[in-house]
Amino acid sequence: MKVLIIGGGGREHAIAVSMRRSGRVDELYCVPGNAGIAQIAQCEPSIGVMEFDRIVAYAKEKKVDLVFVAPDDPLAGGLTDVLEAEGFRVFGPSRRAAVLEGSKAFSKDLMKKYHIPTAAYEVFHDADAALAWLENAPMPIVLKADGLALGKGVLICNTLEEARAGVREIMQEKHFGDAGNVLVAEEFLTGREVSVLAFVDGKTVKPMTSAQDHKRAGDGDTGPNTGGMGCFSPSPFYTEEIDAYCREHIYQPTVDAMAAEGRMFKGVIFFGLMLTAEGPKVLEYNARFGDPETQVVLCRMKNDIMDVVDACIDGTLDKIELQFEDMAAVCVVLASEGYPVSYEKGFEITGLQEFEGKDNYYCFHAGSRFDDQGHIVTSGGRVLGVTARGSTLKEARGKAYEATGWVTFANKYMRHDIGKAIDEV
């Protein structure tokens, strides 16, 4: 098969590595890709993920058999629909289904209508109305921009003054652009966060192994929200009992609800969960693989990814048994200092060759590119996802942190407590 991956981050590099492990992929392409993906696939960095016409033309030029749409923006924008209209086989939800992530207000209303456990909430289209409601709201409270905001449009406000400032930031100052035209104010939940990615074919849902992301920029979960600073899998807090509950009350009901609304979902649903004292509740949905969750989940999956992709598209997922290695994985993100606010880029990355030929070690590229001299340099806030597998989470964590020392670049920054929660188990 000839496969085209849309995207250029660490998630897409992990997907590309899984595709290369498949015995069914002969030629692999990526738009726009990055310096890491370019070593295992043919990349076209001049095409952006929202340039739908150019993506269609490129797919036709390369005569690809399947397009895998990985990022949120093109999914919410309807790239799957555009490609399918041109006769391409596509992995990724339609625009109508991707609204599950594209609008937090939609997803909250869906959960309320179909009795899927989630935090209490209110939706506001007007800043003054939101500010008036806050006067009597319990603190802390969570404020969310309704639309896509690169994983950063969530504010946890501990005081009324912080909440007022949050409303102004999201709705009036437009820190997250048009994503903040509508605001969701949500009850603050406490407990353990867990991420579960699941393959979906419209009616059947097959959860993958669990993971836990670290969103805040600084150690001890301090600083601003980011796209994710690291991750580990599996979560020791996600028990068989919790899994059984989520399958019955969250996963299948979500897929059934989308079908009932005429928004049949095919692809991957990311279930962001909070394990509260009252039971698991949904924090958020994503309509695609998470980043960096993908890096620690796919490296443990035994299945040929193409078999699962085909089953999702063809509606035969019930015939697939997902299998994962009885190992753990930890990913530590190496970022540019100052991320996610402001940072410099263009610094040469050295030491990448240290990963070559080493089993159970991976270096997934996120923000990297080739410069004019052919050197690999930094090109984003999150630069690399250093990932390692081990027989236990503690072993995987030790290996991952060991490997972070193999690569260097100016302004290199990372958290030092990724997976620290596992020390408490």
TrEMBL record:
Q: Which InterPro entries match?
A: ATP-grasp, ATP_grasp_subdomain_1, PreATP-grasp_dom_sf, PRibGlycinamid_synth_ATP-grasp, PRibGlycinamide_synth, PRibGlycinamide_synth_C-dom, PRibGlycinamide_synth_C_sf, PRibGlycinamide_synth_CS
Please state the gene responsible for encoding this protein: purD
Where does this protein act, in terms of pathway? Purine metabolism; IMP biosynthesis via de novo pathway; N(1)-(5-phospho-D-ribosyl)glycinamide from 5-phospho-alpha-D-ribose 1-diphosphate: step 2/2
Read off the Pfam families from this record.
Answer: GARS_A (PF01071), GARS_C (PF02843), GARS_N (PF02844)
Reported EC number(s) for this entry are 6.3.4.13
Q: What NCBIfam families does its record include? A: purD
Gene3D superfamilies per record: 3.40.50.20, ATP-grasp fold, A domain, ATP-grasp fold, B domain, Phosphoribosylglycinamide synthetase, C-terminal domain
| Family as reported in the entry's similarity comment | Belongs to the GARS family.
Cofactor names from the entry are: Mg(2+); Mn(2+)
Keyword Manganese recorded: yes
GO BP, one annotated term: purine nucleobase biosynthetic process
Q: Which residues form a coiled coil?
A: none
**A GO molecular function held by the record:** phosphoribosylamine-glycine ligase activity
Listed name of the protein: Phosphoribosylamine--glycine ligase
**Which transformation does this protein catalyse, written as a reaction?**
5-phospho-beta-D-ribosylamine + glycine + ATP = N(1)-(5-phospho-beta-D-ribosyl)glycinamide + ADP + phosphate + H(+)
Q: What species is this protein from?
A: Acetatifactor muris
**Which keywords are on file for this protein?**
ATP-binding, Ligase, Manganese, Metal-binding, Nucleotide-binding, Purine biosynthesis
Outline the extent of the ATP-grasp domain: 108-314
